[in-house]
Amino acid sequence: MHENTSAISREALLVEANKVIREHEDYMHGMLATDVEQKGNVLVFRGEFFMDDDGLPTRKTTAVFNMFKHLAHLFSEKYHLVD
């Protein structure tokens, strides 16, 4: 299943992911990946989604969702989690 990817710990992957986030042109203050899990061959990143007081998405919510999607594409091709 993971023949073409390298093993990486959750902690090491989060360090790499947050470096990518901070250096990305769409970075907004507060964007941070706080968790990642393996769903088949896809790495799913999680963190604060910045909903408004009514629990509705904001402009920042969309930016964070797109960033986590970018991370999934970028890192799922390279890594798989080891636990």
UniProtKB/TrEMBL annotation:
It comes from the Bacteria. InterPro entries: DUF2498 (IPR019633), YciN_sf (IPR038191). This is DUF2498 family protein.
